[in-house]
Amino acid sequence: MPEPTTEPTTEPATLRQRLRRLFAPLLVGFATIGKWLLPVVKIGVPLLKMSGFMFLSLFLYAKAFGWPFAVGFVALIFVHEMGHVIAARLVGLKVSLPYFIPFAGALIMLKESPRNAWIEAIIGIGGPILGSLGALGAVVCYFLTGKELFLGLGYVGFLINLFNLVPIVPLDGGRIVAAISPFLWLVGLAILGPYLVLRVIHGGLINSAVTLVIVLIVLSSIPRVLGLFRKRTPRQMRYFECTPTQRVVMGLLYFSLVGSLYAGLTGVKHLIGTGSF
User: Are 91 and 143 in contact (CB under 8 A)?
Assistant: First the structure.
């Protein structure tokens, strides 16, 4: 006699199982979208930060000098800072996009420290090199269009890049000459110190943003200058170790750039006819 067959019984799904079945496809979808959006967010957030500070600087410069000059000036600063970014990435260092500081230029943030003075010098000189090309481009635009705005931008571009090459930290020049000889920081202090005194005598301490910036530069440089006369630790000695070839190469680049910028500044000044600088 055949045994009676019984159909398997299925227990009703619990609430948790029902919710899992309902939301699992949604969770998978959100995870997939998040995977694709993460690189966009990583790029987009720094871009938004940079753009925000850039437009704030642009607005304030426009209030002071007018929109045409403000746009050109911010573009020159951006080109200079991108020179640092490109140089940093060429030597394998992670770096932020430029952060604009109204009436004080802009800066980049290294996400890791340079291994030695040679690497720091490469990053330091990248900005003035590309910035000088940007200023030269403005002068070329003047000859192509005849608009004096471009000549003024070229003048300012040569000037700010030349100023940045003063051999004192935290300026680019101070970072560059560290690979030649850090004792050149004394030359930078000998340049900016008396210049600051003259500005204070003739215009007072807080007569312009330029004076305040120079005050901050001089004050922040003093600890490093004093450090030249202290006994260096083995780590510091290794940091400043450069081969003779590296010192010669960086010296040629640095002094050639200083001479080229001064020549460009003198030539533009002659075209403008502003007289003595």
Answer: no
What tokens were used for 223? 């600890």
DSSP string, 19-33: HHHHHHHHHHHHHHH
CA end-to-end span of the chain: 119
Question: How far from 131 is each of 11, 60, 80, 124, 135, CA to CA, in Å?
Answer: 74, 22, 4, 12, 6
- Rounded distance between C-alpha atoms, residue 168 and residue 183, angstroms: 10
The helix/strand count (H/E) of the chain reads as 9, 2
List all residues 6 or more positions away from 212 whose beta carbon is below 8 Å from its beta carbon.
206
Q: Are 134 and 157 in contact (CB under 8 A)?
A: yes
User: Could you tell me the two tokens for 255?
Assistant: 């002094």
Query: Which residues fall within 8 angstroms of residue 218, CB to CB, at 6 or more apart?
Result: 168, 189, 192, 193, 196
Do 138 and 76 contact (CB within 8 A), yes or no? yes
Q: Of 145, 136, 220, 213, whose CA–CA distance to 175 is shortest?
A: 220
Report the DSSP pairing between strands 105-107 and 99-101: antiparallel
Can you list the alpha helix ranges (DSSP code H) found in 112-243? 117-145, 148-164, 172-177, 185-203, 209-227, 234-239
pLDDT tens digits along 16-54: 666 566 556 655 555 565 454 444 444 455 566 667 778
- Do the beta carbons of residue 153 and residue 135 sit within 8 Å? yes
Confirm if 155 and 265 have CB atoms less than 8 A apart.
yes
Q: Which residue has the tokens 């204070």?
A: 200
Read off the pLDDT of residues 151-199 as tens digits, 9 standing for 90 and up: 999 999 999 999 999 999 989 999 999 999 999 999 999 998 888 777 7
For residues 172 and 130, give the distance between their C-alpha atoms in angstroms, rounded to a whole number.
13
